[in-house]
Amino acid sequence: MRLLSPSLLLRASRGLATRACSRRDAQYLRRVSDGGFVLPAANPGVRLEPGFVDEAEEEALAAEARAAALSFGYDYDGDRRAHVLNPADGSIESTREVVNNTRVTGRPEKADQALPPWGYGDDFDESALPPAMGALAGRLRGSGLYNVGALRDLTLNLRRDSFFQLDPHLDPRLDGPHVFVLGLLSSVVTTFSPSDALLGANGLPPRRRDPSEVGLRSWSDLDIDAMCQPRTLLHFAGDARDSWLHAIRPGVEVDLADGAAVCDWWGQTDYLVRRSPSRISIVLAFAEG
Length: 289
Known about the structure:
- The protein is 19% helix and 34% strand.
- By secondary structure, the chain is α+β, with helices and mostly antiparallel strands.
- It has a single domain, classed as Jelly Rolls (Sandwich).
- The strands form three sheets. The protein has a seven-stranded antiparallel beta sheet.
- A hairpin with a 2-residue loop joins strand 14 and strand 15.
């Protein structure tokens, strides 16, 4: 891997045939190191389209996701932790565990998995998608913003109890080079974190693993936080797809006037974004156009 200085680590996407990262994207991207906005030259390939669907479309998509979960969903662990904020000094003092995710995917992931009719990869059948999801895929392809080819994967994640934690990971390469996540029903902060290999090549330590450290400082000082409001379409490609992991921090539980709430912090720990009780994510992966 070519050695980069830390200042060049946060470089632009490698030029996939899609719209350029812009200052509009920068409004929703903050560095965890200092809370500053991530300008296009430092964007590794993350793009956001707020309000990509309207409220009626959100409702239709959520209904289709719930129906698919009843037929093909399985409980998916790994989303168990929420930090508790000490109101006296703002420190994060403990975690508690909740299993909260139902998943639907055509990608074979376990032996007894019920596979949805749309399939996966080279065998993906877009005509088998429910109507609103099929329309979403068509809108993405016809938007003129992204040069995408065949749809190769559609995965649904239905999370509840405001616990949306997602460990840092790269999606399988076979999914395709363009990944889109449409979030429904709740805001969330999605974090992009350089891989350990990329950090090590730049003389930096590996990602933090201790939950309390992650809760206060994120996984690395080079992490980028993306603000994803309900109905926002998140796209990542290039370096953001291949060498930056994406994740969702466990969230911070705080006491508010109307009761306890789980929040994300965005860029800095003093900027809290309240989560709704439930969130559905629709993940679509496309081949290059």
